[in-house]
Amino acid sequence: MAGSVCMNLKLSSFSSFTFSSSSPSNPSLLSFPRTTTSTPSLRIYALTSNDIKVGSNIEVDGAPWRVLEFLHVKPGKGAAFVRTKMKNYVTGNTVEKTFRAGSSIAEADIYKETKQFTYKDGVQFVFMDLSTYEEMRLGEKEVGNKTKWLKEGMDCTLLLWNGKVIDVDLPITVKLKIVDVDPGLKGDTAQGGTKPATLDTGAVVNVPLFVNVGDEILVDTRSGQYMSRA
């Protein structure tokens, strides 16, 4: 018939529709093509307890943890297991936890970004991405006790989980200047001993008796200990 339109529906017409098992809300829904940009889904990596090692990032009870120590145990009777000591990235708490050998463990999706600490604005610490010049502001809660080693111009590594900063890694060695300390005395080098010194970041460390105001020293940020004069 003139002017009529014949429409043939074929199963192949729906080839652009796919079933998705990655949707966190309802894995049974059809996934339709979109023209807008959506937020990428979280990546989940499967591990077993046999893969655990020092420095592993795992997710337990919905929180990210870093493995500090581990020990594989094979008792004479019973199943083998892995004993671990872990630190919670969010709370800072350290606990001991045991996993059955071969049991499945989720790896925490933690990624790193290098930022430069530029300045402090009130109670906020401002970090800049040197490639995009975008700023990120963190409070004392996010930076923790590492604030006492931060110095303007210092490159730091920010660890992120679920889009949130959970830790800030500083250089192992930093050079800081002494702004207040009791004056040294003759013979101090031979006699040894230490005294407290205040640094330009506000941190207080024990230094040898011969160190004076104005001296620059190297400090280990992991232990907070004096290493040497710079």
Structure description:
- The protein has 230 residues and is mainly β.
- It has 3 domains: 63 residues, SH3 type barrels, CATH 2.30.30.30; 60 residues, OB fold (Dihydrolipoamide Acetyltransferase, E2P), CATH 2.40.50.140; 57 residues, Nucleic acid-binding proteins (OB fold (Dihydrolipoamide Acetyltransferase, E2P)), CATH 2.40.50.
- 3% of the residues lie in helices and 47% in strands.
- It starts with 17 loop residues before the first strand and ends with a strand.
- It comes from Lupinus luteus.
Which key terms come to mind for this protein?
OB fold (Dihydrolipoamide Acetyltransferase, E2P); 230 residues; mainly beta; five-stranded antiparallel β-sheet; 2 helices; six-stranded antiparallel β-sheet; SH3 type barrels; 3 domains
Low-confidence stretches: 1-44
- Major sheet: size, sense and barrel closure? 6 strands, antiparallel
Percent of residues in β-strands = over 45%
**DSSP helix fraction:** under 10%
| Derived structural class | mainly beta
Largest beta sheet: strand ordering:
3-8-4-5-6-7
Radius of gyration: 27 Å
Spatial shape: flat
User: Could you say how many structural domains there are in total?
Assistant: 3
Count all strands and give the number.
18
* Name of the CATH first level of the largest domain: Mainly Beta
CATH architecture of the largest domain: Roll
Taking all residues together, what is the mean pLDDT?
81
CATH topological fold name of the largest domain: SH3 type barrels
Secondary-structure element string: EEEEEEEEEEEHEEEHEEEE
What is the helix tally?
A: 2
Query: First CA to last CA: what distance?
Result: 94 Å
